[in-house]
Amino acid sequence: MNKVLPWALFISLITTFISACSPAPKSSTGMGQLLDGNTQGYSPVSPNVSLQFPDDHMAHDDFRQEWWYLTANLETESKEQIGLQWTQFRIALAPPANLQPMVQQQRNPAVDSSLWQTEQLYMSHTAITSQSNHQAEEKWSRGHQSFAGTQADPLTIRQDDWQWVSQSKLLFPATLAVASEDFSYQLQLDTAAPFQLQGDNGYSEKNAAGTVASYYYSQPFITVTGSLVRDGKTDRVSGQAWLDREWSSQFLSKTQQGWDWFAIRLDSSSTLMLFQLRDDNGEQSDFYSGRRMYQDGRGHNISNEQITMTATAWQQTASGRYPVQWHIEIPSENIDINTTPLNSDSSMPLSIPYWEGPIHISGTHTGMGYMELTGY
Questions:
Q1: How confident is the model over 225-243, as pLDDT tens digits?
Q2: What is the number of domains present in the chain?
Q3: For residue 235, what is the domain's CATH number?
Q4: Can the peptide bond before residue 54 be classed as cis, meaning omega within 30 degrees of 0?
Q5: For 15-19, 81-85, 276-280, which range has the lowest pLDDT when averaged over its residues?
Q6: Is the bond preceding 154 in cis, omega lying within 30 degrees of 0?
Q7: Does any domain span residue 140?
Q8: Is residue 301 in a domain?
Q9: Could you tell me if 175 and 189 are in contact, meaning their C-beta atoms sit under 8 angstroms apart?
Q10: How, if at all, do strands 299-302 and 120-129 pair?
Q11: Angle, to 10 degrees, between the axis of helix 99-106 and the axis of helix 7-21?
């Protein structure tokens, strides 16, 4: 971390950020503590706002948080199944108009604040998962044109040498290159499918009361080719990927412990996005969100009362105990499926501990996808 903020301020902010995400008893606050908070000075998420492309591929610094989130189900030339995740998070440390006086009081006068001052913190995660191994890496940086952020043309989403670089202002085609301590990869990403707007035309509610929401769109139909280096060995890989984009000034309320999220490719040439939000006593909440999506751009939302998700097996990992197998029923879609992880021990023991990994689908449909579990 290079001169992100004066150290006293930086340590205070990061301590608060990490402590909100650390494993805690179910009686403690969870992800809601991180993703709720004082929204004064930040832009709100409002219904009936039309998302604009390519502008909304870029960072939204006036919102408190956002992420670019890619998951991929890949296969090597020897038919080994590989899961891959890349995520870039942006976290606003203060509303844009409020940080300057605080930083100027504590800064080193020898440092030009116009070069070093920032309200934006970037955190990136990446992971490679096989049946026998799961490797995860994390990187932090300040928001600065030399270190982390976005640019419009060509569209670039980067933190140091972890970079998504498109060929134009559009999101695709693009190259994603990441070099971590234990592995590296370079992928070519492309799609001809329209973007899918989650929720109500991109306005995605996050609680039953409708008081918390994000802007949320997905691209679940991405073709992938490229190379992956592990333990000094290079493998050619190919497969399918899924990109989620969200931004908000309040993703959850303080009473919400976390979520269980699924990105599923079904054998019917359709995809399924599902998540449930849990309250702070660890019980499943009655709030769910789902959308069935097709490559030609068609899609429809699935009503809350049609979705039933039941954990059927748990796994103790280094970062917590997670429900790694699920039974999912959606009668309106004639879906009755079970999910099984490629690797049950796919926890992410990072600053924000969670579980993330590839899954297989069986039942009325077969397929594969990705699962994320937070707040356990």
A1: 999 999 999 999 999 999 9
A2: 1
A3: 2.40.370.10
A4: yes
A5: 15-19
A6: yes
A7: yes
A8: yes
A9: yes
A10: unpaired
A11: 130
